[in-house]
């Protein structure tokens, strides 16, 4: 068995399995899409039926990527059989509909893709998959990244909303339309008395999540009704000075902004920072490795080398960034050196 990076994560014996392709033109027998963020969804025109994704991921991407309509929908804990492998989806806890990919054959391989272990207000955290080979994300793979308890951040958001409303400000929460915005919608419903007014892109994603059985609370579409709004949820790319000024004029209120992200607080000092990440922090990543008990680990993205070295030191097992794998046969696997 070979595991390596080639415009996505490749698992190959007689059959070539590809996870989260980075471009449309790829060579694979079966392609598995972990979740609906645009950097993970690239579907080419050639034989799109070889693609697999969860039903909710399918719903979230099919309008923007019409070719996704031909992809196969696969539920959590169901599986497909390849020439030598059984492949299944397991919840990754990243965003609604997101999945880890588990490949079982001579060895059991788990590709976590983007994930978090924390439960959120809208979904449980990732299921830890015991495996022989683990390909684990490493976006926040340095010890300095430690996230607060999610409930504490939710309470912080609720307090901020209440204070803004008491001051007759219009609070604007920023979060990506796919993923973070659904969590923010639920937070506003549970931690304030307001109904959030949301951008059309968020409204569409919220409606799809609701149609798939996820209870994220009430929300209204922003549509020439800003005077009635008590709180807005917008994508971060729309919160420039001109847009915020126009909202303030239309709503006849001063606006205050808050952003939900796992990255350190923005340096501009003009908005409140809520440390909510859809990824695992360092402790969660190490916890996953410890409980999955793999014999070999590949780290993927972000601080991949730093996490690989930490895993080797803590668990005494070989670990290496996937981008350095270079089609190693697992029997020839090597440790990474600092």
TrEMBL record:
Question: Which ranges of the sequence are coiled-coil?
Answer: none
Signal peptide residues on this chain, from the entry's feature table: none
Q: Which Pfam families match?
A: RMMBL (PF07521)
InterPro entries recorded for this chain?
MBL, Metallo-B-lactamas, RibonucZ/Hydroxyglut_hydro, RMMBL
Q: Which residues form the Metallo-beta-lactamase domain?
A: 5-157
| SUPFAM superfamilies, sorted | Metallo-hydrolase/oxidoreductase
Q: Which GO terms describe its molecular function?
A: RNA endonuclease activity
| Name of protein | Metallo-beta-lactamase domain-containing protein
């Amino acid at each position: 068995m070979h595991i390596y990076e080639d415009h996505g994560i490749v698992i190959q014996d007689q059959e070539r399995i590809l996870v989260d392709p980075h471009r449309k033109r790829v060579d694979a027998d079966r392609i598995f899409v972990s979740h609906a963020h645009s950097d993970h969804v690239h579907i080419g025109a050639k034989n799109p039926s070889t693609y697999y994704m969860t039903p909710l991921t399918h719903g979230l991407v099919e309008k923007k990527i019409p070719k996704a309509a031909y992809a196969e929908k696969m539920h959590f804990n169901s599986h497909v059989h390849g020439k030598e492998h059984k492949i299944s989806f397991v919840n990754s806890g990243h965003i609604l509909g997101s999945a880890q990919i588990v490949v079982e054959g001579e060895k059991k391989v788990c590709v976590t893709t983007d994930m978090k272990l924390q439960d959120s207000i809208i979904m449980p955290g990732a299921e830890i998959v015991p495996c022989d080979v683990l390909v684990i994300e490493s976006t926040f793979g340095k010890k300095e990244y430690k996230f607060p308890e999610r409930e504490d951040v939710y309470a912080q958001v609720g307090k901020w909303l209440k204070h803004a409303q008491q001051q007759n400000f219009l609070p604007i929460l920023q979060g990506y339309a796919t993923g973070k915005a659904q969590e923010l919608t639920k937070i506003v419903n549970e931690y304030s008395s307001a109904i959030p007014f949301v951008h059309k892109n968020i409204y569409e994603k919220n409606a799809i999540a609701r149609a798939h059985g996820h209870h994220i609370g009430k929300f209204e579409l922003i549509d020439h009704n800003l005077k009635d709004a008590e709180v807005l949820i917008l994508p971060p790319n729309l919160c420039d000075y001109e847009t915020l000024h126009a909202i303030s004029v239309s709503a006849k209120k001063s606006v205050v902004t808050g952003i939900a992200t796992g990255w350190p607080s923005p340096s501009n000092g003009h908005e409140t920072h809520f440390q909510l990440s859809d990824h695992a922090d360092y402790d969660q990543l190490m916890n996953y490795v410890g409980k999955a008990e793999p014999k070999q680990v590949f780290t993927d993205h972000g601080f991949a080398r730093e996490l690989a070295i930490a895993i080797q030191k803590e668990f005494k097992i070989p670990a290496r960034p996937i981008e350095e794998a270079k089609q190693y046969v697992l029997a020839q696997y090597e440790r990474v050196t600092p």
